[in-house]
Amino acid sequence: MTYRAKDYSYLIGIDGFSETLLKNHFTLYQGYVTNTNKLHELLSGKAKDPANPEYAELKRRFGFEFNGMRLHEYYFENLVCPTEKPEAVVKQLTDACGSYEAWEEDFKATGKLRGIGWVILYRDNTTGWLFNQWINEHETGHLAGCQPILVMDVFEHAFMTDYGLKRADYIESFFKNINWEVVEKRLG
What is this structure's pTM? Predict the structure, then answer.
């Protein structure tokens, strides 16, 4: 199995994200794809010995690189020319949080937490419950059995080129560029 980086150049020109920021972000994503493939290749040639520190570290690193690749794909794919929020999505978020506005306020507040990471609107596949979650590193903090519905990158590389330390301004631009059709599709 070889993973291939997807082409997200169609995002260049979206409001609030400079070409420089996006091209740098695409390059970072391509590095995760490359490293996922390298680690897969290295692991396939190693003896499956948990006592071997090299094997153990490669296994641990794979989750970081793979999730770095996949989370960026979710992120880029839920950005594009803004679309209207489908009524079904608003209803589900209202049912989960009391109102769409309450959900949005919580998502944005989660994104403003100190630190680096991701904000993910998850759906618990067992209960159907929707909730926002902070993820520190790519491989740390994901909730088992939950589907990412909306993903926002809040590592510095996602906003500092354009916004410096003004993360809240980046979050506002992110919200102006959500492709709600993708969110609706992920909700199924």
Answer: 0.94
